[in-house]
TrEMBL record:
Any one Gene Ontology molecular-function term assigned to this protein's record: hydrolase activity, acting on ester bonds
GO cellular component, one term: cytoplasm
CDD domains listed in its UniProt record: MPP_Dcr2
Name this protein carries in UniProt: Calcineurin-like phosphoesterase domain-containing protein
Ranges for domain Calcineurin-like phosphoesterase: 47-316
Pfam families listed in its UniProt record: Metallophos
Length: 378
């Protein structure tokens, strides 16, 4: 499942990605290499990122309402993309609900989830959540009187019979599919020594002057769940330390961090009743469902002044940002109609400017309303 560099880096070509229907929106994707992926800011313009969290495509696919939720999720993404015209999209985990998908067709649902972004020519990156490679869960109503579950599969002599699998689709398979079939994807398999934790990588956003002028580094970490425990391991923390020291040794370039399941630090800063300053947000409807253990990553990040903010999903009823020492801990907004909760859907937006550097954020809702504006870095 090794990522094929030959698809991109051997050609060393600059590719302009122009949004369909938006003639003035253009972002330059620099050549991808094994060591670094780089996106370049447009001259005189900020760099805008849309975070799509907890889409849960494929949930309850055998019901009438399941496919309808996917249609609604696409509508939310289309609204956000049309209103905000971002330069980049980040899929912040739980893109699919693998534990509800009957056969090994997870990649088909993954393709549906990224289709609004892909159709507009916007580059994107993804990080895994706890549902993306979860094993199939047999509904009780499928069990017959003798206790044997019915197999809802193609006939044995069908050409599709080999797709009848309930084992789930592994992270490496999902990532390989995304990379192999999408030149616009900036996702990566991450270092082999961290597998089965897969989506661990860094992207560079460069100034309009070129790749030798980084404006911000975007770090992606796989917070587990599904096929293995919900943690960011000591090995992942070590990888971050070595990688960040290598590419940003003087801490001069700001850094933003993205993973799916909130760390335990989120529980410490969570507002108890409503949302009050210095926290900013609109919904605070549940407790923080944190990772199972804290194994060192937060200690590294809080001591690193170049790290400005961490962004997570997972909790559908939370959308706040709260300060934690010198960095911000932020939730995205539940984007998909799959998953629990009936709160209105939306997406967190990030806007990065170069001179002077700043990170601003707000939430764009499915009804076009904007709220919860906050400055995350001066």
């Amino acid at each position: 499942m090794i990522f094929s560099i030959a698809r991109f880096s051997l050609y060393f070509q600059f590719v302009f990605l122009t949004l369909q229907g938006f003639d003035d929106h253009r972002v330059l994707a620099l050549p991808k290499t094994s060591e670094n992926y780089s996106l370049q800011m447009r001259p005189g313009a900020p760099f805008k990122i849309a975070l799509f969290a907890d889409l849960h495509f494929g949930e309850a696919e055998t019901t009438d309402w399941g496919p309808g939720q996917d249609v609604n999720s696409k509508r939310v993404m289309n609204t956000v993309l049309d209103d905000e015209t971002p330069d980049f999209v980040i899929y912040l985990g739980d893109v699919i609900t693998a534990n509800n998908i009957l056969i090994a067709n997870a990649s088909l649902y993954w393709d549906q989830a990224i289709s609004p972004t892909k159709s507009r020519g916007i580059p994107w990156a993804s990080v895994f959540g706890n549902h993306d490679d979860a094993l199939f869960e047999w509904p009780m109503e499928w069990f017959s009187a003798p206790g044997i579950p019915r197999l809802i599969c193609p006939e044995a002599n069908s050409t599709h019979s080999e797709a009848c699998s309930f084992r789930g689709t592994h992270r490496l398979e999902l990532m390989k599919h995304e990379i192999d079939h999408n030149a616009l994807s900036f996702s990566k398999n991450g270092p082999k020594e961290l597998w089965p934790s897969v989506s661990n990588y860094v992207l560079q956003v460069s100034s309009s002057d070129g790749p030798k002028s980084p404006v911000v580094y975007l770090y992606f970490l796989d917070s587990g769940g599904g096929s293995y425990p919900e943690v960011i391991s000591t090995a992942q923390a070590d990888w971050f330390r070595h990688k960040s020291d290598q590419i940003n040794p003087d801490l001069r370039v700001p850094e933003l961090i993205f993973w799916h399941i909130p760390s335990r630090a989120y529980k410490k800063v969570a507002p108890r009743f409503g949302i009050h300053r210095p926290c900013v947000g609109l919904i605070n409807k549940e407790g923080v469902a944190a990772q199972k253990a804290e194994l060192g990553i937060m200690k590294l990040l809080t001591k690193r002044p170049s790290v400005k903010a961490i962004f997570v999903g997972h909790n559908h009823g939370l959308d706040w940002c709260c300060p934690n020492e010198k960095l911000w801990l932020c939730f995205a907004r539940h984007t998909g109609y799959g998953g629990y909760g009936d709160w209105a859907r939306g997406a967190r937006i990030l806007e990065i400017t170069q001179k002077p550097f700043s990170v601003k954020s707000w939430i764009r809702m499915e009804d076009n309303v904007v709220h919860s504006r906050v400055v995350l870095s001066p």
